Amino acid sequence: MIGRLKQLRKKLKINQTNFAKQLGITQTAYSMIENGNNPLSDRHIKVICSVYHVNEDWLRTGNGEMFFASPYEKEFTDIFSRLAPETQQYLLLMARELLNTQDKLLGADEKKMN
């Protein structure tokens, strides 16, 4: 996780001092985390993910994309993961139908413009 933390900070083009300020710690304390001398707390992980729209799964495990595409994606992912499998299937069905309806409406709007 330490390598991903440093990778994230560099991707955001933020120095250790400013990154540490977001976490409410000193640059020295942050440097010790980034060097592997101190662990990154769950609270700090939550702050990083919330402030920078970072995928918590990516930060912890390296799985998935570094960032969520939108702030809604994280909320949707959190909600979806708490649903029962049957409810997840139903939600996917509803989402597909919503997408089809959107495509039809957008297609109709494009025809009106031409």
Give a short synopsis of this structure.
The protein is an all-alpha fold.
Describe this structure in words.
This protein is an all-alpha fold and 114 residues long. The chain has two domains: 2-61, 434 Repressor (Amino-terminal Domain) (Orthogonal Bundle), CATH 1.10.260; 83-113. Helix content is 74%, strand content 0%. The chain has helices spanning 2-11, 16-23, 27-34, 42-52, 56-61, 71-82, 85-113. α2 (16-23) crosses α3 (27-34).
Span of the ends, CA to CA:
52 Å
* Count of extended strands: 0
Average pLDDT, rounded to a whole number, is 89
What is the CATH homologous superfamily assignment of the largest domain? lambda repressor-like DNA-binding domains
Helical content stands at: over 70%
CATH architecture of the largest domain: Orthogonal Bundle
What letter string, H or E per element, gives the SSE order? HHHHHHH
Strand content: under 5%
Round the Cα radius of gyration to an integer and report it: 20 Å
Shape: elongated
Number of domains: 2
- Tally the helices: 7
* Helix and strand composition category: mainly alpha
Q: What is the CATH level 1 assignment of the largest domain? A: Mainly Alpha
The largest sheet, given as strand count, sense and whether it forms a barrel, is: none
Please give a handful of descriptors for the protein shown:
7 helices; mainly alpha; 434 Repressor (Amino-terminal Domain); elongated; 114 residues
Write the layout of secondary structure elements.
Blueprint: H1 2-11, H2 16-23, H3 27-34, H4 42-52, H5 56-61, H6 71-82, H7 85-113
